[in-house]
Amino acid sequence: MLKLERNRIRLTIALFLSLSSAAYAQDVQTDVIATRLSGIVDRHPAIEKQALLASARRNAARNILFGYPDPSIEISRGRGKEDMVALGAEELDASRTRIRMNELRISQPIPFPGKGIVAYNAMNAEVRKEELMLLIERNRLAGEILFTSLEYHAAKKVLEQNRTFLRKMESLQMTTSAKYETGVGSLTDVTRTRVRVNNLRLKVNDSEDQAQKLYQVLQYLLTPLNGERRMFTQPEIDRYLTTVRAHIPGEETALKERSLEIALARATASGKNHEDTLARMQYLPDVELFSALTDQDRRSATFRAISKERVYSAGIMIRVPVWSALTNHWNVGEKSDTYLSAEAGTRDTVSRLTYEAEATRNSLQLLDRGIQLHTEQIIPGAQMAFETALSSYQTAKGDYQSVLEGVELLYEHQIERIMHTLDRDRALIRLGTMYDVLLEKRKQD
């Protein structure tokens, strides 16, 4: 009894370790796929383009933050004369004074305090927008790679189904021809079968064309990673999407916190708010500080120095926005309306994505149920109906119409299951993009 209990404990431990090892291996494989997918995305020219745009905006914001109006230096030189005409003066030339003047003037414009910070905040909002657009583009490209890969594999499955049913119909064509030659069947059955055979041959040709087109699209999307352009297999994508699905939050409120599209709308509204503030600050005066040094040399007509003067001066000039204030209200009105429009756009984005997320979740559940029905009930039932009708026809107990209906029903549901699976994966990728979990590092969760 004790030995049996020990064996049971050992079996339980072994089973636990095997399940843990399998789960660990699946996590490792998923991380490898995530790393490879992120590498392909980050090396793609479309992402490089968006990253450079974000870097350009970042440099523009730094230029505004650390930039300041340059001082101006003015050097002027002048000469003139002064006639001192006095009552009773006998020599006019003796009273004439020649003047030479040199002036150095330095001025520094000073914007009204706060204007520079507001301008920087407005540009920083643009930086945030470009960074979010970079993340959105990464998610979009990753989703496109995954879904195009799934489309390619689905096209290959459809092609295989078309070839399979073409063989079935060619077999039926041989059967109907043999029955017709022996006088048991009808020419109508042979003709109807021949039409369906040719139709399936056309579908095989179209499926090959579709698979080839998708393959070429993947060649563009799969930018070489270390010289490699290997496509993702169906099992790899299935494992990855299973992990993505596990990381999609169940709470509806998480969408407002995680959605990059909502964050982009908020960043846009924030930037427009700063632009509105900056437009209102145009009513405020700017100032300019200046200082000047003036040297003046006064000489008589006989070139005897009379006096030398050095004058220091300093002051402040204020730009009074008189004329600009008369038109700035139009600028304020434009910026204010643009800001309010961005705020309305944010609310619209939140509402649209909330309803879209709910609809996508419901669609995901219904597609799961449809795939399960196809796999467990519809396709097995259609297969059995086809085989029963074929057996009855071969033994002259059933009509050929039942065979045709059976094979067409089976074919239809086989294709429907492939399409439903593709639609399910599309919905899953869309949810992963909406909640920004499509490219997360799994080991850090």
- CATH architecture assignment of the domain at 27-42 and 113-283 and 324-444: Up-down Bundle
- Nearest-angstrom radius of gyration? 41 Å
How many strands, what sense, and barrel or not for the largest sheet? 4 strands, antiparallel
In one word, what is the shape? rod-shaped
Low-confidence stretches: 13-28, 441-445
The CATH homologous superfamily of the domain at 27-42 and 113-283 and 324-444: Outer membrane efflux proteins (OEP)
Percent of residues in β-strands: 5-15%
CATH first level of the domain at 27-42 and 113-283 and 324-444: Mainly Alpha
What is the helix tally? 9
Give the averaged pLDDT, no decimals. Answer: 83
- The secondary structure category is alpha+beta
Distance between the termini: 45 Å
| Total number of strands | 4
